Amino acid sequence: MPRSTATATIDAAIDGDGARIATRTSSGGFGWTLARPARQRGRADRRSRYRRYQGRLLLSTPANNDLYDFGARSYARDLGVFTQLDSYSGSALNPISLNRFLYANANPATLIDPDGHAASVPYVLHLHRLLFGHTDGGGGRLKTEQNLIVSYTRGHREVLFTPPSPKETEFLLPELFERYRQAAVDQAAHPVLLIGALVLDFLAIHPVADGNGRLARLITTHALLDQGYSVSRYVSVEQRMFATKDAYYDALYASQRRWHDGEHNVWPWVGYLVDILAAAYDDFEGRVAARRNLAAGSKQDQVRRYILQHAPDVFRIRDVRAALPGIGDPTIKRVLADLRHEGRIEAADDRAAGRLSAWKRRPAVVPVIARFPAEA
Questions:
Q1: Poorest-confidence range of 1-15, 171-185, 193-207, 234-248?
Q2: The domain 121-286 is classified under which CATH number: 3.40.50.720, 1.10.3290.10, 3.30.70.330, 3.40.980.10?
Q3: What is the C-alpha separation between 180 and 195, in angstroms, rounded?
Q4: Whole-angstrom distance between the N-terminal and C-terminal Cα of the chain?
Q5: 237-274: per-residue pLDDT in tens?
Q6: 270 to 146, 261, 266, 284, 321: CA distances (angstroms)
Q7: Are 230 and 191 in contact, with CB atoms under 8 Å apart?
């Protein structure tokens, strides 16, 4: 589990425009305010009242007990507990986990709870229900029939891996989450190694009829946040895994061989996860650097600079909007039109011009200077 100090202090918080929204605030481990922020005028003062402990949104009014939004549940800082039960029912091997209202197992000096949910079978089924709730088959249920991992790439159906049966899944999946949770608490290995082993086993069990890959990517993000790898708040780890499907499946296939015998090699999969995580941090660092470079000049200058120097090879208006949140779509579209007229960009698909259109930069034209032999 990630470690934190018993008291958390925010010296200053700023919004996306660089405006100061809070001054120094100190909180005890459970969130009791030790030093309230100095009153500020205008917008900054109004915002600072609503984000205090861990920067969480304050839900209640000053007249009532402070409640903070922790995602799945609300947290009552005056009581040091959540106001709803955890979806994870706890384990007799870890008796304190049986109290499903506790925050961070009543130990905020060394543990955190990033979203109010523990990774567990009910949580996974809850995610599955959200993903497939509007499909014909619905969601939120473990598989009832044997599933297979197959490939059709060689012109015929080839079984690559046979997951455990539905009967075995009912036992293996809860055991997996309990073993991972205990290993994380005991710090039995590096957090990324533990997360890699968790996701590898989850994909091997293949617990639902459809959507196992999507669930695995969500579990990866949840576990990374839980272990303090907050880059996944700003860069989509799930999208990076989806975009590198070939490497994803190669690493998975390499690590699942002899899984049923307990003689599989976890390192190809863990290596892939490390590469994804490192690329996410590089992406985030690049975005921060680009944001600093983009700050100068007019809004149109900022858009031009982003498109020509920092945008992905293929980009859409939403990418520009995400990189430059203070600039409206009309300005972005005007610059796109100018750059297209100048021959600097071109359409990357057959969509009609609009917010879903994809664009790409055209390679720079290098002038060729003809050289003639000197006259004799």
A1: 1-15
A2: 1.10.3290.10
A3: 8
A4: 81
A5: 988 898 899 999 999 999 999 999 999 999 999 999 99
A6: 27, 19, 6, 21, 34
A7: no
Quickly tell me which residue has 């990774």 as its tokens.
119
Give residue for tokens 């005056």: 78
**Using the 8-state DSSP alphabet, how is residue 57 labeled?**
B
Q: Give per-residue pLDDT as tens, 69-104.
A: 666 677 777 777 777 777 666 656 567 667 777 766
Judge whether 27 and 52 are in contact, CB under 8 Å.
Answer: yes
Joined together, the tokens standing for residue 248 give 């994803």
The better pLDDT of the pair 191, 120 is held by 191
Asked whether the predicted pLDDT for residue 20 surpasses 60, the reply is no
Residues 71 and 54: their CA atoms lie apart, in Å, by 13
Q: For residue 172, how many other CB atoms are within 10 A of its CB? A: 17
Q: In whole angstroms, what is the distance from residue 317 CA to residue 339 CA? A: 14
